[in-house]
Please model this.
Amino acid sequence: MLSPGRYFLSGNVAVAEASLLAGCRFYSGYPITPSSEIMEHMAARMEKEGGVFIQTEDEISAIAAAIGAGMTGTKSMTATSGPGFSLMQENIGYAAMTETPVVIVDVMRGGPSTGQVTIVAQGDVMQARFGSHGDYENIVLSANSVQELIDLTIRAFNLSVMFRNPVILLSDAELARMIEKVEISKDIENVDFNQVKIPDVPEFRPLGRGNKLAITGLTHDERGYPITTDVNVHRTLVTRLVNKIKNNEKMISDVEIINPEAKNIIVSYGISSRAAYPILKKRRDVGLFRPRTLWPFPESKAKDVFEDKNIITVEMNLRGYDLEVERVARKYGSKNFRNIKIIGGEVPTPKHIMEVLEVN
Amino acid sequence: MEFFDFYRKDRWPHQFCPGCGLGTVMNSLYKAFSDLNMDLKNTVFVSGIGCTGRVPGYINGDSVHTTHGRPIAFATGIKLARPDLNVVVISGDGDLFAIGGNHIIHAARRNVDIKVIAVNNATYGLTGGQLAPTTPHNMITTTSPYGNKEHPFALSELVAAAGANYVARWTTAHPNQLVNSIKTALTTPGFTFVEVISQCPVNFGRRNKMGDPVYHLRWIKDHSIPLSKVTFDMKSPFDFMDIDFKGIYTIGEFVKRDRAPYGKTIETENNILRPPKE
Ligand SMILES: Cc1ncc(C[n+]2csc(CCOP(=O)(O)OP(=O)(O)O)c2C)c(N)n1
Model:
């Protein structure tokens, strides 16, 4: 494992190394650009750390194997990009329903379909939250630097264990290959299974310890026995699954906020948000609201910042996070919305934002 | 071990139709575990979706009822994360060979140390008797109302070709041989596979003049011939499965070999990344 110190790492290598530091000891995956280096790095490193690495026959089995390992109490991860992320959706819902910790890294590229294989995009933000069928909540994290990929990879494992829920970390084609200076801290905190008690999160019991576990994706009671036609059993279970994330939004959410008093608030995340910083240095009337936790939406932190503001969203898709930002900002009295939407692989620049600000 | 030490009594009555072959499968599984004195504590049962997929839920040990077609992929993760556990997959032919076909051939090729019991009732039982990749030629299902124009997979032959360490096919009309094969499968390292030809009188037999379970079972028995009696003029194994009321099911042990199971390649500690020298 990387010892504490300074390194020069690419985003993909950083995710792989951070997962090992976080205690990940199971990796299953299927190669896809631009996420493959995570897998290649894991192939070289995982067994040396005493963990398991397997290249599966597709992404459906990659996520399935990772969830299976998670059920044994092994911290597990898979990484992929657009098409593979789509294939994983059914089993992400299964992990939510069976309350199995697992970390999924989606290195976003241009879609739909095979789209722009090597090119950066942010088109998966809504899929990361809503991709599987039925009612459930995902925790979705988004990084805007290689350092943050490290910090959020570690946090992803901790959150998935604390909430017994799949956690999705969004990276992108740009961050994946970008090489930046990073610092590995000497005090990395890894949360263990059942270490933190959270209301509505039942105790985690691993397979293979004589617990006689009954695990199913069917609607089930507390024993895990399938009961699929009782209104109350379904309501109780699914409401709890949703509430354990929703009601703990304050504890989960993490937002970088700069100049919260400013009249104009840029709402952006991931690689797009890097366009905001040069402007913030020059203009006191511009602020930043940058969620590192995209989902659950950091509503508790938005309230004070969004009140009666001009909101400018910046992201690399034609429809995405702006929908949720607008919903919340309207609640707090904001009326003026502008969305900077850039697709095709051009990363937003300060110029894009300045053009919108100057129209004001 | 008593029957209700192996099965969860508080889940009875089970949901299977009268005359279903899964009763025989459940009894055979119990008998095999009981004979081998195998501890349920060290075993995880994994299934996909289907009538057969419900079997592990009745067992008095760890059971994982996964998504349709994926039990082998989940089982692979469980086994590799906890190599000390016995991981047993019990699922239907549709689950394992239609939607999950890719996983089973790759798990057999990798020779992952999991044990698979595939219950082949020639149809999708749970969803009401649709065409399966195992439905014999010409037979009627709800999605082949004029007869199956396709030809079925020969499951055991397929898995043997893919690289499994042990492969056997029996039927619900051969319970003793079935128990012995399950025992061999459970005790042979690597990927092992037992196919059970089973009756589904309600959703398959009924539409093919075999609604009576006893008649259905006898029909299966009459259409089974041991591998040792297969003669050269029967051509390829695939012809054996090409059943149009005249064909046959070959039964017996197809493969027994001892290729090394899938495992780790590296044991040593050696970081490839180190902090730069000051
Ligand atoms: C992704 C998905 N597609 C379809 C289904 C519906 N479905 C449930 S069981 C089943 C077929 C079961 O057949 P088989 O595996 O042969 O098991 P049997 O019921 O005959 O034992 C199907 C199509 C599903 N649950 N999930």
Notes: Chain B touches chain A through 44 residues (CB under 8 Å). The first strand of chain B starts at residue 43 and ends at 47. The domain at 14-262 of chain B is CATH 3.40.50.970 (Rossmann fold). The mean pLDDT of chain B is 91.
